[in-house]
Write a structure and sequence with these properties.
The chain has 129 residues and is α+β, with helices and mostly antiparallel strands. It is built from 4 helices and 4 strands.
Length: 129
């Protein structure tokens, strides 16, 4: 099993830049699984670092799930506040290329629970220009 990478800003930026062309243009070839996984994991862990806590769970299957946002901690069963998105949608959110409202209205992510939308306060986690 690979070692868990922490949210290093330089590594996160490098990982996102490796998939940036695909984010800008969906008709471009999909990045290889490792590059995509690295970008998704590092941006999600960056969110968890800037919004520490455990009241919202952000899931980007099949790559990562993180807990973030200060407040009541969830410990058992299905979390009450969940954000779930596919990898591309998550990266678009994480880079500010799409807003949470746009992704939600397009049906590209699910928000459940009264606090799930609070992640919008910490997005984007990285700008790619």
């Amino acid at each position: 099993m690979a070692a868990r990478q922490k949210a290093d800003p330089a590594k996160t930026r490098q990982a996102v830049l490796a998939v940036a062309e695909w984010l800008r243009d969906e008709t471009r070839p999909t990045p290889d699984r490792d590059a995509l996984a690295t970008a998704v994991r590092l941006t999600a862990r960056t969110l968890a670092a800037v919004a520490p806590g455990a009241s919202v769970e952000v899931r980007i299957p099949p790559f990562v799930a993180v807990q973030c946002v200060a407040g009541p901690r969830h410990t058992r069963g299905t979390p009450p506040n969940v954000v779930e998105a596919d990898p591309r949608t998550w990266l678009l959110l994480a880079t500010g290329m799409v807003s949470l409202a746009q992704a939600k209205s397009a049906g590209a992510l699910t928000l459940s629970g009264s606090r799930a939308g609070e992640i919008d306060h910490w997005l984007p986690v990285i700008a790619v220009g």
